Amino acid sequence: MSFKLNALLRSPWVFHLSTGSCNNCDIEVLDCLTPRFDIERFGMLLAPSIKHADVLLITGSCNRKSAERLKRLYEQAPKPCLVVAIGECSMSRGMFVHSYNCPQPLDKIIPVDVYIPGCPPKPEAIIAGVVKLIEKVKAQAAEKK
Amino acid sequence: MIYIFYLIFFGFFLTAVIGLLASWIDRKVTARVQYRVGPPLLQPLIDIIKLLGKETLVPAGASRTTFLMAPVVGFSSVVLVSTLLWINDIRLGQGFVGDIIVAIYLLTIPSMSIIMGGFASANPLASIGASREMKLILAYELPFVFAVMVPVIKSGYSIRIGEILGAQAQNGVVVGSLSGFIALVVALMSVQAKLALVPFDIPEAETEISGGALIEYSGTALAMFRLTKNMLLFTLPFFLMILYMGGLRFDGIHLLYGILKYVLLVALITVIRNTNPRLRIDQAVKFFWGPMTVLAVGAVVLAYFGK
Amino acid sequence: MREEILKDITGRFKDDIVDVFDKSPSRVYIEIRKEALVKIATYALRQIKARFNIASGVDCRHHFEILYHFTVEDINLLISFRVKLPVDKLEIDSLAPVFEGANWIEREMSELLGIDFKGHPDKRRLLLSDEWPEGVYPLRCDYEEWDKKAIRDRGI
After folding, report:
1. Per the CB < 8 Å rule, is B39 touching A41?
2. Which domains does chain A have, with CATH numbers?
3. Which pLDDT tens digit goes with each residue over C96-123?
4. Chains A, C: CB contacts under 8 A, how many?
5. Residue A37 carries which DSSP code?
6. In 3D, which of B49, B14, B15, B5 has the Cα closest to residue B224?
7. What is the C-alpha separation between C71 and C47, in angstroms, rounded?
């Protein structure tokens, strides 16, 4: 696996973004940063600005107003950048499928790498999802060789 | 020719290695204090290597040259001042008259580079962070200069770092006397502000202005800023050690004492960082121009009378 | 205390009140005629010193309703003034010139339900995005999907 990708997977800085959620998934993401489920041991830090981010953690079903802002933020994140969709609302809009304000699911707007189901997912599930993301990226890099 | 060796090996390489190690100690102790497991040993190095592999984005309205030159200015001044301090520490006679003034001057340039970078990004939050850094520099430089005057007075009014070290080897370390101790406390607070660590991490306040002056930096430029900050975590306590604690001597047991002195200073910085909340900028200015300046002037007066 | 307040309101505005529904010790629904809204709301605000909480709009199929909720906190009482509007003439006097708290909720009701508030100082959009067409009100019973590019199946 290339050196750059190895360094990226050993120190992913997460950026947390809510595109109109009920904030339950946001609370669970914040739980991951607390001492009980410490994610700094994997090298993950909470990035203050989008330009420092490697992994985008997106919660909430994307409504019309936040779709354009989400696209702008995704363009500002320096590539290579991975996207994680947390919770039912960002996977497929959950119970808001027929809502007038959420026309498209998240993966029609930006490319998503890993989906973490749950409403809200437990912090253990979020950590397991990020581990699966790292393994998936490693497997993709190995099979590209 | 020998100076190129000093520049690259001592000034850059050894400083970077010890600085990254000190940054890891700081993060691990912080994690342990908060009852969690911290990052692995090579984590600060991997952070910088990862940042070197990302793309560097320059914002549209920013002035491109200043934006990209700011981290280079900060980084080169840290390498220069480390080289100066290492040369003075290893070969005592090799400095020049007035090199303590050059060292103080060069140590303000990394903060200036953050201000340059903050104002060159066309972002209002970065301007707020840069202007707060300017106010912080105004605040902590005053007691810092007073505190540096104490070892100058105690070693017979000489402004050569080599003579300060020699005087400490003869008469005992400066921190043993009362004025030296007070001056070390004041200088340690100023170092905490110079490194932009809590309680004075006002310019880079994370949750408040989302990154402050460094909000628009990414990729190689951000890696240089982080490397500068980590190298400063070695250079500034080293400067304090030379002025107050007799420097780092390489013969026998004194090498162990030197390492212990450095670890003690880093541990003090970490403990202050973990037990305090962040101050507002007006509280920080009042703190530095109020109690700290009074203490520093008191230490200078005590040193003048020989205590 | 509660009985005094209710007797005061029902006595003073006898010919404007259509119906009083005393649901529970803490909840009263008073249906009023829509011309008397500003008068009664100002009285509830200034004289009884109730606090304006929120207003809600409902599309019942044959008429529209707006409820204005006022609370008297000391005695734990929530009074809701109900106004019924006919489907073909959806307009009512705005409460925004009387007190500022009704400004945004009336903007939201006017863009989501299509009710016209006469005398409202600022009739801009509040919640809907800029690409939303004029004249389409999402919270009505007869709202239909206008977006051709919307994806409404879960893809399973």
Report:
1. yes
2. 3-144 (3.40.50.12280)
3. 998 888 999 999 999 999 999 999 998 8
4. 25
5. G
6. B49
7. 13
Q: What is the mean pLDDT of residues B199-214?
A: 76
| Inter-residue contact C75 to C131 (CB < 8 Å) | no
Q: Which domain holds residue B152?
A: 2-304
Other Cβ atoms less than 10 A from the Cβ of A3: the count is: 9
Residues sharing a CB contact under 8 Å with residue C141, sequence separation 6 or more, in sequence order:
C59, C61
Question: Could you report the predicted ipTM of this complex, rounded to two decimals?
Answer: 0.88
What is the count of structural domains for chain B? 1
Bridge-based pairing state of the strands C51-60 and C63-72: antiparallel
Point out the residue among C143, C147, C155 whose CB comes nearest to the CB of A103.
Answer: C147
Across the strands, what pairs with C31?
C19, C82
Q: Dihedral through CA C129, CA C133, CA C135, CA C137, nearest 10?
A: -50
What is the token pair recorded at B105?
A: 């001057």
Using a CB-CB distance cutoff of 8 angstroms, which residues of chain A are in contact with residue B32? none
Query: How far is the alpha carbon of A116 from chain C, nearest alpha carbon, in Å?
Result: 16
Answer whether residue B208 shows pLDDT above 70. no
All structural domains of chain C, each given as residue ranges with its CATH number in brackets, are: 2-95 (3.30.460.80)
Q: How many CB atoms neighbour CB C119 within 10 A?
A: 12
- A92, A103, A108 ranked by CB distance to C154: nearest: A92
**Rounded Cα gap, residues A63 and A109, in angstroms:** 11
* d(C-alpha B187, C-alpha B133), whole Å: 18
**Contact state of A64 with C149 under an 8 Å Cβ cutoff:** no
- Model pTM score: 0.87
Do the Cβ atoms of A108 and C145 come within 8 Å? no
Asked if residue A62 lies in contact with residue A19, where contact means CB atoms within 8 angstroms, the answer is yes
| pLDDT band, very low/low/confident/very high, at A74 (cuts 50, 70, 90) | very high
Give pLDDT, residue A94: 85
Scanning every residue of chain C, which has its alpha carbon at the shortest distance from the alpha carbon of A97?
A: C152
